[in-house]
Amino acid sequence: MAALPIALNAAQAALEVASSEGGNLTLDLLKQYAPESVPAWILPLTAAAVSVGIVVAVIALLALTSVWLERKVSGHIQCRYGPMYAGGWHGWAQSIADGIKLLMKEDMIPLGADRALFVIAPALVLGAIFGAFVAMPLSPDFFFADLHLGAFFILGMSSLTTIGVVMAGWASNSKWSLYGAMREAAQVVAYEIPLGLSLMVPLIVAGTFNLLDASAGQSDWWGMGWYIFKNPFVLPAGLLFFVSSLAETKRAPFDLPEAESELVAGFLTEYSGIRWSFFFMEEYAAMYLMSLMAAVFFLGGFESPFLHFAKAAELPVIVCNLIAAVTLITKSMIGVIVMMWVRWTLPRVRIDQVMTMGYKYLTPLALLCVLGAALWEAGKVLIFE
Amino acid sequence: MDFQGIHDHLRLINAPGLLRADEPRAANPEDKKDKGRGGDAYLVVEADALASFLETCRDDERLSFEILADLTAVDPGKDDEDFWMIVQLLSVTLRHRLAIKALVPKDPGQIPSSSAVYRAAQWHERECAEMFGIEFTGHPDPRNILLPDDWPGSPLRKDYEFPTEYRGISCE
Amino acid sequence: MKTTISARELTTPREWVQNVWDGLFTTLAGMRITGRYLLRKPITIQYPDERMPIPDRYRGIHYLEQEKCINCLACARACPIDCIEMDAIRHGKELEWVSFSVDYQKCMFCELCVYPCPKDCIHMGTEFAFVTEDRSELKHDLLSFKGMSRDARVRKKEAEEKKAAKAAAKEAKAAAKEAQAASGDQPKEEGDDG
Amino acid sequence: MATEHKPSITFHPEPRNLPGGEREYMMDVSTSDLEVNMGPQHPATHGVMKILIRTDGELVTAAQPHLGFLHRCAEKIGENVEWLQYLPYTDRYDYLASMNNNLGYSMAVEKLLDVEIPQRAVMLRMICVELNRIASALVAFGTYGLDLGAITPFLYAFREREWLLMIFEKICGARLTYSYLRIGGVFNDAPPGWLEEVSHFCDVFEEKWQEYYDLLMVNHIFVKRTADIGVITKEQALDFGLTGPMLRGSGVDFDLRRDVPYLRYKEAYDAGAWKVPVGSGEKGTVGDCWDRIFVRVQEMMESLSLVRWCLENIEEGPIIGDIAKTLKVPPGEAYVGIENPRGELGHYAVSDGGKVAVRCRVRGPSFCNLAILEDIMPGTLLGDAVAIIGSTDVVIGETDR
After folding, report:
1. Tens digit of each residue's pLDDT (9 = 90 or more) over D139-175
2. Whole-angstrom Cα distance, residue D127 to residue D105?
3. How far is CA A364 from CA A92, A194, A358, D354, in A?
4. Is C142 helix (H, G, I), strand (E, B) or coil?
5. Where would you tag: which of A18, A57, C155, D54 has the fewest CB atoms within 10 A of its CB?
6. Is D68 within 8 Å of chain B by CB?
7. A-C contacts (CB, under 8 Å)
8. Nearest CA among A16, A259, A26 for reference residue A132
9. CB-based contact A80 D146, cutoff 8 Å
């Protein structure tokens, strides 16, 4: 069932790609090497399909790795090893083994559940988050859709997962699930605001919604011209973004929709097997998405001294791209590890405190940051030009 | 205050329902069947006046038993005609204890509830009621607490017979 | 009805700043502690490969020094749930063992069976893992051998031989006595028979 | 709990005219409350207990504990097995503090027997009981963190508890159901090196305690989740017969070890070896969840210094008093209440001079402490409900016996 939303997203992405003016590595390659007999309209579609395939593969791989990583990090924080057997070295194959086990499990739908919604919900959640990744470039020249409103698109797509979660909670016909769904709805609505506002700050500095341009804008100062260094309001905004993204991705201490000690498992209570793992994948994919966003807009994107000197040394484009991709993934990986670290340190916040924090603390602070950053930029323009 | 002091004080204020003190005693050397009694000293109280007696104990300043530590019943034997109702009181400020005993006839096995005096008595009384079949009149919530609602008999009575079956489940 | 929802209370600016500061500071303090452990070596061990040492007094599955046991039933009587059953046939002083079983479905490893033993022959062992798919297998027979032990058999044989020898000697003695009596006082024995 | 079903939405079509020309349309949205079974298999109920809660959205409007899922007829068994044979059953009602249960039962029977306990046995009893109190408080602290979503402190607490269990394993051979303290003394003497290990534990534990404090107790989220939540006033606590940390958390300075002394606690107290921690409302109001859990956390340290005092004062000697092999208890009735980690654990034993008890009553502290949930849970949020259940630190084995 996951195929449907993914296909929809693919179609959407294909249209975006087809209409976008910027180059796309896959498309360029196809244009270069495709035989002339192939009709021209097929090329963007094929490029889109290939790109989507790569997105799905990369994200699934990242999600699997981070599930394993989470277990290792939590294990070591708690003075234990975590998985050690599956696959040999430090249980690297644990996630794969788990995935196979989850696939094997009986596909259960509760008797009173709304079958259609119950089935659609996990697919919608997973499809939405994969759709968001379409706008996320992996390196300066390897991307799937170079959207002018990339940041906007990603925020929009990632908040689409909420609908899936609410759907799941409602369809499960369980009181605990319903609580979880309602909490998720309230929480995401509350945290969209500070999330968007805190993202506004680097956007003001960058002057663009496009992720490639935003990343390229940090290439000065030998690759260290990151927005957090360029404007004093970006760093606090980054912290706010981090906290809001924790809430947005339902991670502890904001894992209220699941809240295993309060709501049994929240909206996941009635889910099992592969459907359950879809939600799980979504959580980790969302973590990566948010970390990638943070990396692009706060921590320099692809830019680092390595890339700067690689470019200066006029290394081949493919090497530069590789360095850029590794830089970005590393930065986002650090973000993900910090998210895990926070999760295994803090207790859970109560629901009204989540709301309070979103509305009374993060939103005003984010507004302050936006104001400050805007004034700073305006001042810069006034003084230097 | 020690037991004697408490007893004297209760006599002095004319506590309702106070009958006598039941203190441990040594065996009577002449009567071979009498082995004496060890352990605690009790105040024996009239069953119907137990609640008001507890209220006196709680409200009197020189006693101030704030806590009802335990309320339970004893079925001393099949042939015995009475249950013993045992109440343990505890004073937090004055740091003394008092054990109270009331004799409740097995037939009809009724005693006024003390849960209006000590809220703590409520659950203890529910337990007593289901385990001994004592009825606490005026109890605000007289449901079973540990046993299922339809459990047959009162398990802690000496004449209790184990059921062989409960809802189709064999208890052998 | 009391309500204790803090969101309904107003927050003063001072408290607001305090909350932000406390939230940040204590979170970082907590993360410092967990982060320190993240970099340390774990303290757990990988169970089936390494095992924790089991102390001498560990209360696991019983073991029986069958040679010493005299079938006195002291342990069975001491058991609160009657999970020990034993049976032996007595041949004079020697025992022929039929069974000595502990039902580990019931046993709660309280060690109360060990203390009353007059011969100090039942002990709690260090074995604890016994998993089975069949409940009947949980009734362990502690006997290392059934029937009589070799020593007991030898002793019994010796004892029997001794007994036989004794009986023979007695018989011989009696015969001698009889012979003596026959020569002397005969009517007395007849009287005994009557 | 009967639920009132009201019509869900009522419209008042006539608008109300407000000053300034505005018109207000009224609409009453009334919803019916949701009844939820919290338990018997809910992660927050610490075992098999059911709390029937009625909620209005996230707000709990009524709560009713249902017990009995773990009822194992302990009192009836007590009337059917011999005096000493009942000892292993006492392990099983408050399974986190078995040493304390053994002690309570043994003391009740000893009171009837009127037997003197040798000094070394008294000290071994005190050490074991206090170490067990630490182990129990570690579970209380750890699972409380777990209830509030902090998983790591739970594992840290269990790391130290694991060591304690190994210490117990060395002296009595069991990790949970010890059956170590017996009528008349203790079963075994301490093995060689055991007392040194206990003293080593005391030194290490002190550092770890600071870690718990920094990691969880003062964490801002934790404080906000627990302070001012589930406040039990002093009057309420006394009325409900709460004992132990629940009572002390409400600001009542009362500890059975000091105020109705047994063993050598009074002596240790007079020697300044320990104090009685009392809730002071440091982070909120007196008697809130934070106070209760902090009393438990402080008690760990007090128990630790008590253990140290015992280690200093322990002497060689016999470990068991003058006790017959088959116990015949003289007729009488005795009630002994001791300070279990959860409150007053009362044992009331009635003997008619035989080998078997006539009545063997157990007054479980959790049983009494649980009753207050009916009173303090209404008016809190669902998350608070979990925090409150956790702060009562119930052991279901004991409420149901």
Report:
1. 989 889 888 888 888 999 998 999 999 899 888 888 8
2. 17
3. 43, 8, 9, 76
4. coil
5. A57
6. yes
7. 52
8. A16
9. no
Superfamily of structural domain D66-400: Cytochrome-c3 Hydrogenase, chain B (1.10.645.10)
CB of B7 within 8 A of CB of B57?
no
Domains of chain C, earliest start first: 62-141 (3.30.70.3270)
Place of tokens 């339970």: B72
Tell me which residues of chain B have a pLDDT lower than 70: 32, 172
Instruction: Answer yes or no: do D36 and A176 touch at CB < 8 A.
Output: yes
Token pair of A367 as six digits:
């507004």
Residues of chain B neighbouring D68 (CB-CB closer than 8 A):
144-148
Q: Is D379 on the interface with A (CB under 8 A)?
A: no
Nearest by CB to D228, which of C6, C22, C115? C6
C45-68: per-residue pLDDT in tens?
888 888 888 888 888 888 888 878
Chain A's closest residue to D156, CA to CA, is A78
- In a mutational test of the D interface, the residue from A261, A344, A345, A346 whose CB has the highest number of chain D CBs within 10 Å is A261
Residues listed for chain B:
172
Q: Between A42-77 and A25-33, two packed helices, what is the crossing angle to 10 degrees?
A: 140
Helical pair A175-206 and A363-384, crossing angle rounded to 10 deg: 10
The confidence band for D229, taking pLDDT boundaries of 50, 70 and 90, is confident
Which chain A residues touch D34 with a CB distance below 8 Å? 175
Which residues in chain A have Cβ-Cβ distances shorter than 8 Å to D216?
A: 347
What domains appear along chain B, each with residue ranges and CATH number?
Answer: 3-28+37-158 (3.30.460.80)
How far apart are alpha carbons D367 and D372 in whole angstroms? 10
How many Å apart are CA D140 and CA D391, to the nearest integer? 8
Count of other CB atoms within 10 angstroms of residue D53: 24
For residue D289, the distance in angstroms to the closest alpha carbon of chain A comes to 14
Residues of A in contact with D146 (CB under 8 A): 261
Q: What residues contact A2, with CB distance under 8 A and at least 6 apart?
A: A122, A123, A126, A127, A278
Query: Taking the model in full, what pTM does it have?
Result: 0.84
pLDDT higher than threshold 60 for residue C3 = no
On whether ipTM exceeds 0.85, the answer is no
Query: Is the CB of C34 less than 8 angstroms away from the CB of A341?
Result: yes
Among residues A50, A51, A379, A73, which one has the least CA distance to residue A233? A379
pLDDT band of C192, cuts 50, 70, 90 = very low
SS3 A198: helix
Q: Domain ranges for chain D, please list them.
A: 66-400
Q: How far apart are CA B98 and CA B7, in angstroms?
A: 9
Using DSSP bridges, classify how beta strands B110-112 and B135-137 pair: parallel, antiparallel or unpaired.
Answer: parallel
pLDDT (0 to 100) of residue C193: 47
Distance from CA of C37 to the nearest CA of A (A): 5
- Report the C-alpha gap between A17 and A28 in whole angstroms: 12
Residue B98's H or E segment, with its range, is: strand B97-105
Cβ distance of B74 and D332 shorter than 8 Å: no
Cα separation, A70 vs A344, in Å, equals 10
Chain A residues close to D58, C-beta within 8 Å: 179, 351-352
C-beta atoms of A341 and C38 within 8 A = yes
Q: Find chain B residues with C-beta within 8 A of D334's C-beta.
A: 38-40
Concatenate the DSSP letters of all residues of D180-244 into one string: -EETTEESSPPPTTHHHHHHHHHHHHHHHHHHHIIIIIT-HHHHHHHTTSS---HHHHHHTT--T
Which of the 8 DSSP states describes residue A56?
H
Query: Do C42 and A342 count as a contact with CB atoms less than 8 A apart?
Result: no
More confident site: A300 or D100: D100
D-chain residues near C59 (CB < 8 A): 172-174
